[in-house]
# Entry
Amino acid sequence: MDAQGRGRADNVDPADQWVLNPRTGEYELRLSPSAPQSAVPGPRRSARRAGDATDSSAADGGAGTARRRTAAPGREVPPQRRRRPAPEETAPGRRGRRPEKKKSKGKKALLWAGGSTAFVVLVAGVGGYAYLKHLEGNVSTTDVGNAGSSSFKKDEAFNILIIGTDKRTGVGNEGYGDAGSVGHADTTILLHVAKDRSNATALSIPRDLIVDIPDCETTQEDGTKTVVPGEQDVRFNRSLGEGGRNAGCTMRTVKEATGIQPNHFMMADFNAVKTLTTAVDGVTVCVEHAVNDKKSKLELPAGESVVKGEDALAFVRTRHAFGNEGDLDRIKVQQQFLGSLMRKMSSSDTLTSPTKLVKLAEAATKALTVDEPIGNVGTLKDIALELKKVPTKNITFLTVPVKDNPAEKVKATVVPLETEAPQVFDMIRNDISFTEVKQKEKKEAAAVAARLKGEKSDPSEVRVRVLNGGAPSGSAGQELTYLQTEAGVTKSENAGNADAEVARTTLEYAPDQAAQARALAEILGLSGAAMKPGESATNAQGLPTMTLTLGKDFKGAGVKLNAKSIETPDLPKTTADQKQCAS
# Structure
């Protein structure tokens, strides 16, 4: 009989049969003492020894009943303490403790959800292997070819494209507007998770954003591959569904429009909102004014309300109840909703209810389609554990900065703002947080101070070659002129273009060139991150020289580069821990 069957037969919660191994961080199966132990991984229990201060087996009331402790002669029974994970090995001469029958609710919650509440579609977490294999069977996968990554890397920053499709599949969804929709990219969020897991950014991409959709290879139902031709200057939502475009086409479109490479995707339909909110017994939302939207059938009083099922779907779909009744205002409401759902997921009310967590895992996986490399139990678990590390206060929601499309008389579509949008894209590409930028600047300033501490060469003794690695054309020559005529760095030369473009300007120098590097860093205002100890190059005279590579952050000859070289745009944004009322 398997673990799940044994739990049901003995009226034991299956969650009680899994225990956290503190050495591996994984949950392992621990069958009840009455069950055979030979096939169970984990610590072996010591044989019962004479002289142990325990009740007799007859007083236990049968196998599996919690034993009551009695005091050994001359000792008192200490007060009951909070349960801790069992050690890997039993100390010599001592009897291994029998796991308590009644586990803390928090431990059950961690079993079934893996402690992961960072994002709704990853609620499955770390449970029993058999159960997670069952959840894996709920998940649909799509072959996106080379549109994403071939595997999930736990030690790197990663980008997951979360797509909400408007396809009217599922019970009760046929009546929502366009019943024949092929499933466009109705709601799209690019979730960037930082390499150090200290923060994440959820960037909403408006469905009416004008983009170029590239050619896209897709796999048909019969297994054959075909290329769907691209289109220029069309709505972003057409990157999915039309012409047989799959999620890989949407991933390619995001890369084309933002320069950010999505590693994986997760796609959900209308049922996701209904089933997920029902599984947690509703999500708290807030509206400044009473809502009575005849089109979405949303009726809410002013102030806070709890919505689930059809009401929750109506809340995230309505456009006529908030702002100027457009999609951009609806995006704000959806972000507020997701923040509230995240808070509900991480609340004790949810985490202490195994029933809710199981329902949530079932709902999420049944409503989910992912790319093939992450469509297995192990990888979904790994993603869940990585997302678990991100504090909700450092999950930033914002939208691609846009303006009305100037090519249209009737304003129906939008285009990126020329300055702000590239800044947002650069910050995400360079793994810069929207909530911790000041802290990062302080760290970089400290790094600069540490690296600049020490002797500096005279500018006339500094040898450096200048490469253009993504700056505007002619920048290397202009910077060279500044260095030679105004900064006194006469032993500098133009080395042309770099082999590849870089986001940030860097200075590479050998250990014996540290004094020269300090002098040049002071002249140029280089950040600690820009200074790269490495190898020396050779200049035109055959002498060792440093290498200055001008990146996309280069602002012009003579303009100092510092920690603020990629500026933080002043944009409307919220974090997942903030409570707001839709207006």
User: Anything to note?
Assistant: DSSP finds 14 helices and 26 strands in the chain. The longest helix spans residues 327-345.
